[in-house]
Write a structure and sequence with these properties.
ten-stranded mixed beta sheet, 2 helices, about 250 residues, single chain, mainly beta
Length: about 250
């Protein structure tokens, strides 16, 4: 990757090898009255270019999986064991997005609006790599974290107007890059995001009563997707999944 990366409230980029983990969250821990987002885990595989994205505390429940020829959002096998008979753990499945640049695809975007931040809580210890905190966006703005998948031999990217959060080597010698930029959010968009966060809890409760509902914001970037209903039947639509921040004391970490 070449080019100038604009410095927008960021730590040093995380550079990890095959099968590594990139972790980040939004929040200023130096502020005594700080607010924060969920922590996000982006995990690679040692044996394939498969990549997995989810909030750290929910990765054992639901995650976005980027496989070679298909991508999906699904509940995990352990959670699926508790589903009512006839319910499918698959939430959405679609083909990889078209290339935006030679060898590069925009896979997903994590959106963290200022309005979604919650009162801060301590981050549990993370090994082998700690969580990197990014300073929050200004009121009326959001941070967008874009996941870019690069194939072996893909074009070099000259990036401006965004900051690099991290990059991960893939077994095929491809590369996964996470870029961040700040975007203004108008009143109409804030209302739309608030409605989606309210509705997301209903989505997950369809599958299992009491399943923690919502994500902090994953926007799946694609031209076409097959969104599966509770029986696995698909329809073409755009999908945004949001999640509520759990209070301190929720014990599962990775």
């Amino acid at each position: 990757m070449v080019g100038t990366m604009t410095q927008i409230f960021k730590p040093e980029p995380q550079v990890v090898g095959v099968g590594g983990i990139i972790r980040w969250a939004v929040g200023d821990q130096d502020d005594p009255n700080w607010s924060r987002s969920r922590t996000w885990n982006l995990c690679g595989s040692r044996n394939s270019d498969d990549v997995y994205l989810a909030p750290r505390r929910e990765m054992h429940r639901v995650k976005l999986s980027l496989h070679g020829t298909w991508w999906r959002l699904a509940l995990t096998e352990s959670v699926a064991k508790g589903l009512p008979e006839g319910h499918n753990r698959l939430l959405h499945k679609w083909s990889p997005t078209p290339e935006r640049w030679p060898g590069w695809r925009h896979a997903a975007t994590v959106r963290v609006p200022h309005s979604s931040l919650q009162p801060g809580w301590p981050e549990p210890t993370a090994k082998p790599r700690p969580v990197e905190f990014v300073r929050p966006p200004h009121p009326g703005y959001e941070l967008r974290f874009d996941l870019l998948l690069g194939a072996p031999g893909g074009a070099e990217l000259a990036v401006s107007g965004a900051s690099e959060i991290g990059q991960m080597a893939l077994p095929s010698r491809g590369l996964l890059i996470v870029l961040m930029h700040e975007v203004a959010v108008d009143d109409a968009e804030e209302q739309r995001l608030a409605e989606q966060r309210r509705n997301a809890g209903q989505l997950h409760r369809i599958h299992r009563p009491g399943l923690p509902g919502y994500w902090v914001g994953v926007v799946i970037d694609r031209r076409r997707c097959s969104g599966a209903d509770r029986h696995g039947h698909g329809e073409h639509r755009e999908v945004t999944v949001y999640a509520r921040v759990h209070p301190p004391g929720h014990s599962h970490q990775r």
